[in-house]
Input
Amino acid sequence: MDTCECINTSESHLGPISEVRFQPRTTIFATSSPDKTVKLWDSNNPRTELLDLVGHKGVVKSLDFHPNETLLCSSDSFDVIEVWDLVKCIRLKNFMAGGQKIRFQPVFGKFLAIANGNAITVLDIQTWMVQNRFQGHSKEIRSMCWDAQGQKIASVTEDCARVWSIAVRGQYLHEYKANGKRFQSIIFHPRYPNVLVIGAFQDIELWIPETEQVYLIPSHTKATVTGLAACVQNQFIASCSSDHTVKIWK
Output
């Protein structure tokens, strides 16, 4: 960023914003809201919305851009996923599949991962048929992410973290128990691809699944690390928590 200036939009959603995602390699970003809409914006000219995608009947919970094509998927509280063509500005398809969180496979964009309840469903976006399904969590999935190569998925519930491979049907590769630490968020480390970063109560944990090593980083005193994000370019990690703070780690 050239400056740290905050630019506000003159238009907005009618409700709180539930998620924001940037379109890869562009200045375009999308926002979702309980007002049942998805809006697109240009960060170079954010005062006016580019598109207002209307069609959801329920609260829009999650959204994601395809890494290579001009597609966007969004999911709502009625378990409906909408597929949007951003060039033609039309809805291509909608179907029932759940989706507390939805994420396209990085790099290739061949699959869409859908976290719903205690399971993850992986769809082939050419056919929209189920390619794989990961079950076994005993509680609701709080966070889910792909690795940078698009071959593995990591997920956390309050009581454990797991790593899955799209090449292995249904069975997790690694598991790490929370032991009362209340996991909330997970990402792959931007510098070390074999390391998972987990947000828990007060701490960030670095977990190496292959060796089962864990390193504890005290991070947010008397608060839960509710979200994590990684920047591949500068290899920074951002954490946000219930204490209303965001911290940057390197």
Notes: Residues 1-99 form a domain with the Neuraminidase fold (CATH 2.120.10.30). Confidence is low (pLDDT under 50) at residues 1-7. The chain has no helices and 23 strands.
